[in-house]
Amino acid sequence: MSGIVSHITGARPNFPKAAPVLRALGDAGVPQELIHTGQHYDDRLSAVFFRQLGLPKPDIDLGVGSGTHARQTAAVMIRLEEHFTRSRPAMVVVYGDVNSTLATALVTAKLGIPLAHVEAGLRSADRSMPEEINRIVTDQLSDLLFATSEDAVEHLRREGVMEDRIHLVGNPMIDTLLANLDQLDVEVARASFGLPDRYAVATVHRPANVDDPADAVEFVRALHSVADQVDLVLPLHPRGRTRLADAGLGRHPRLRIVDPLGYVEFLSLVRGAVAVVTDSGGVQEETTVLGVPCLTVRPNTERPVTVTHGTNQLVTRAGLSQAVEAVLAREAGRPWPVPPLWDGKAGPRIAEVIAAALR
């Protein structure tokens, strides 16, 4: 074993989770390497995050690119196996639930390399979501499981994970958000897109909302019902862009469709919004801490703590218009609870456990 800790990032959601862990382990003097699989490779989905979050330039970029789930996962596995066979890191750290996370878990299990999973235990109970399969398999193969909330801990216990492997540490993505609050400029964001004082933000990329043409039409209709009530800006992920366009997404005068944004630009928009409409996981958490009402257009969430201890609520496409109407009528500035340990110190807690395990 080399004594080095290898961090694996693959896609946009991984970067704000990895940044505080890398920083804290660096402060503790632990030797590290950062491997980017290239699952997200566009500058707007990848490189801009490294720049804005102060992440070091990846030591290795596997450059796997896009592809089907099987091809992408296999490509990461082949290239990581070659690297780990040579380097034999002391531990590998993975983040979230993307294909790169699953691929890494499989490779480390076969090679006998200890694995730590940051954001372990999240469950939607919906195995039609590729991410749910990735979460379940990764957690079963991990040696250290870092949970963001108590419900995640309970999932792991029910699935038979040994107690000494589970660590409730809080949410490292919130570490990154709190560390960057001073950079979130609502006025600049509003002016950049010509938005009025009251506006909403939307994101959409889930297969259940964009893959089937009928679902895309229904989702577009729901977004238009939001834009009927409030100006809406939508940074549009490449996934599903063509299908949503074919469904008439751009045919509303109060709906602004923009390219994917950097971390600071996107969260500046979110911070000033009266509401966020999303099918993303991380946005549910960020809006919870920022105190922005979040309407998640999904039948389930792997982050129920954002509903019980945050600003999130699950809505249907058919019910979105009414939900937005209720949010707009609500008094602004209402207090909201924030989940325990979402205090900006998850990174150091994770680093302390990893450093102790290495010793």
Helix content: 40-55%
* Shape estimate: globular
Largest sheet: 7 strands, parallel
CATH domain topology of the largest domain: Rossmann fold
Radius of gyration: 20 Å
Q: Give the terminus-to-terminus CA distance.
A: 13 Å
* Uncertain segments: none
Give the class from helix and strand content and strand pairing.
Answer: alpha/beta
CATH superfamily of the largest domain: Glycogen Phosphorylase B
- What's the count of strands? 13
How many DSSP H or I helices? 16
What is the CATH top level name of the largest domain? Alpha Beta
* Second CATH tier, the architecture of the largest domain: 3-Layer(aba) Sandwich
Description:
By secondary structure, the protein is α/β, with parallel strands linked by helices. The chain folds into two domains: 5-171 and 342-358, 3-Layer(aba) Sandwich (Rossmann fold), CATH 3.40.50.2000; 181-329, Rossmann fold. It contains 16 helices and 13 strands. It has helices at 15-27, 47-52, 69-87, 99-111, 130-141, 150-158, 172-179, 186-192, 207-210, 213-227, 241-246, 263-272, 282-290, 305-308, 320-329, 346-358, and strands at residues 5-9, 32-36, 60-61, 91-95, 115-120, 144-147, 166-168, 199-202, 231-235, 255-258, 275-278, 294-297, 312-315. Helix 8 (186-192) crosses helix 12 and helix 10 (213-227) packs parallel to helix 15. It starts with a strand and ends with a helix. The mean pLDDT is 93.
